[in-house]
Write a structure and sequence with these properties.
4 helices; mainly alpha; 85 residues
């Protein structure tokens, strides 16, 4: 179980960081714009919390929340897969 949690945390933070970097770069692509809420849920949560100023703490908090959300999703997916296999 510890190996499963560690794998989910590491891969979730890597995936969340990649999506956090990709989302602002694809502003010209309509596909990226449509997927933006799914790519950066951490930034959207920070906006819901009332943090409107974009500074270093906003970016780091958004990146951390993005990695945390994707870590939880990957953990749930791998846990379900391990229970069924």
């Amino acid at each position: 179980m510890r190996k499963l949690i560690t794998k989910a945390i590491i891969s979730g933070f890597i995936l969340g960081s990649i999506f956090f970097v990709i989302a602002p770069l694809g502003l010209g692509s309509s596909l990226i714009e449509n997927l933006r809420p799914a790519l950066i849920p951490g930034a959207l949560l920070m906006q819901l919390f009332g943090q409107g100023d974009v500074d270093l703490t906003y970016m780091l908090s958004s990146l951390f929340l993005n990695g945390l959300i994707y870590s939880i999703l990957i953990f749930i997916i791998t846990l379900v897969r391990s229970k069924f296999l």
